[in-house]
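Lab channel / #folding
Pinned by the channel admin:
"Please post every new chain as: sequence first, then the structure tokens as a reply. Keep commentary short and put observations after the output so the thread stays searchable."

First post following the new format, from NK:
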Amino acid sequence: MHNSARSQMAAALLNKMCGDEFFGESAGTEPSAINPLAIEVMKEMGIDISGNQTRQVSDIVKSGVRFEYAITVCDEAAEQCPFFHGAKMLHWNFPDPSIFTGTLEERVEQTRAVRDAIAKKIEEWCMVECAVAA
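Reply from TO:
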């Protein structure tokens, strides 16, 4: 939604893990600033997203770029997930790190758990999609 954590992490992970086959981009319906906790947990994996800019989904749509897949990572129970015409739509439901509560350490751990769940889902998806393409 805010293009501040989940999709930023997902695009960076996809590009690192499956960059030979796919290129991930990130956008949100209500872009804000990159979540510092997302920056921190991605650095743990050697991925720097601190220079990333947040983007509006409508700007991507208006640009005319066509995508084979559009993967949303929003929490369907709490958010309106975008739809991309002409793309194979996949939805992976993950909680929004911007609403995590608790101590800083607890919020980092919760964000790390989201990062790890996204990485696992991407790894599984890339294995299947790359095998199909081969």
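NK: The chain is about 45% helix and 5% strand.
TO: also worth noting, The radius of gyration is 14 Å.
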